[in-house]
Amino acid sequence: MLYRKLGKTNEKVSALGFGCMRLPVIDGDITKIDEEKAIEMLHHAIDEGVNYVDTAYPYHGTGMGSGGQSEPFVGRALKDGYREKVNLATKLPSWLIKTREDMDKYLNEQLERLQTDKIDFYLVHALNKGVWENLKKLGIDEFLNSAIADGRIRYAGFSFHDDLVVFKDIVDYYDWSFCQIQYNYLDENFQAGTEGLKYAGDKGLGVVIMEPLRGGKLVRDLPETVTNAFKQAEIKKSPVEWALGWVWNHPEVSVVLSGMNVMEHIDENLRIASASLPNSLTEKELEIMVDVQKAYRTRTKVNCTGCQYCMPCPAGVNIPKNFTQYNQYHMLVTPKTEGELKAHYNAFVDISERADKCKECGKCETHCPQGIKIRKELKNVKELFA
Questions:
Q1: Which residues, including other chains, have CB under 8 Å from residue 139's CB and lie 6 or more apart?
Q2: Entry pTM
Q3: Can you list the positions of beta strands (E) in 43-95?
């Protein structure tokens, strides 16, 4: 296993982290973790050098409003000396926080669920602009400072789902040790993106990567144009090797989380991680990845660059975010992923920002440097995701 420094913490973390959001389950019930299989897998990964284990309050639960089964499972699985071998990460359920006291309540509950007296890496979960503004008013900085001071957490970080402007604001607000962002070869300009990755790295933050394979969409049921782009490469690798290797090539990346739910995934990821050094991809390999990116992007429908010239919308529509989700759908859609991709729109575009709020005033079109017929395209977005 290769290890990397996690930003200014100087902690050495395994390049591969074990994500506990998609553990094997019984009879397809997400709340029924197959503990025998899951413990065998987690112990195997740790025995092979993985020392970063990531979970969260709602994982393997029925929804975002209550605690799931992942944290209690991890607490049981890390008995018999395994807790001492790993850095344990979990997350404050930010959307449930209504008072300053709630922050302590959930942290203390999580410590009990995980059967530990401290969390090594504690993240404020799934930050976006609205949640972040609420947490600032309630004193999130004072909470994190006090939890570090009394030893309940060692390092404070956050996970993120919004645009680059919000990301930079959050990074600059508090003395974070690390952050967690979605990043893969299709997400260079999505959410924090490459600019956010480098911004965090320059500020000394360790960066944890989630969704390096887009929940498996970058390795299963690939579009024919993408498969052909990989086949043309003289260097033969699996889609998993290409995707993970591309992420690990970035020196700002500290650890890549993988939601591994069968033993074969673990062994494959361990093998790839053992050979994935920063800046190790050759010029030819990087060219191949550019060809793959182009193959995906030929499937996009709206030539939106995210420049924000169309914003703000008088009706509150987040035009770039709607077009991003619309393009992501068309890049990745297969008969098996259609429902999930539509669900992403509802999860990541607030009701107040959706395409159906468009009043067709046309102000946005007068400012669009790409000449996009925004009103027409927003109707298409509305029709697809309604």
A1: 100, 103
A2: 0.85
A3: 52-54, 87-92
